[in-house]
Amino acid sequence: MTDSIARQQQLYVQDGMSDEEIARQVDLYEPLTDSVRELIEVALLTEVEDEADLRAAHEHLDAAKQILRKRVNPGPYGVRWGASGQKRAWGNAAAGLRNAVAPPLVLRHDPDGRAWCDFDLGAQYEGPAGLTHGGVSALILDQVLGSAAEAGGAPGMTGTLTLRYRRPTPLGALHAEARIDRIEGVKTVVVGHLAGPDGVCVEAEGIFILPKWARNQDPSTISTPAPDGF
Q1: Where are the bilayer-spanning segments (predicted)?
Q2: Separation of alpha carbons 205 and 164, rounded Å
């Protein structure tokens, strides 16, 4: 086992947290994440030029950082499972509940296997003027397609992600969805799209590959990486 894989394994944790404690932490941390995300947008868009006001804002932010640094996790958040099997990927860059850099995605799953979410993107996700950055669109679709594969009982890691940019993606209200198209052995092919008020903006197809270490397991029980990776 390499050192890097060993370190990765340590970030997959069965911590036994109760559903009640998870709910308490959601109530505690989700509003903080939302506030920091809003702060990022406000810091980008503010036109306040008064030096005293800006210094005061900076001092308040420094004070908040000092409060939060009283107790911090020394590394990445990782992926954690509670006593009932509830998964917490709260550091995820695309949908982490405690990651203020992540777009505000709350993924839903229908009985027919469709994964979807409705969300709003602010100015901090801009690429071309007034439009969503193409890389942000890719980030979101990778997450939604992967979620559909996992929810459909055929999880995997992204092997390929093919995107077709059909029209510019606006900022603001957007919709993303995905479904499993077919399963070919250890490969799950998922299709989906990202849409705005005027229709589909980006179409996507992803191939998600079940890692070697997981191929003799029930996919619904897969939770930690194996020593040999893929």
Answers
A1: none
A2: 9
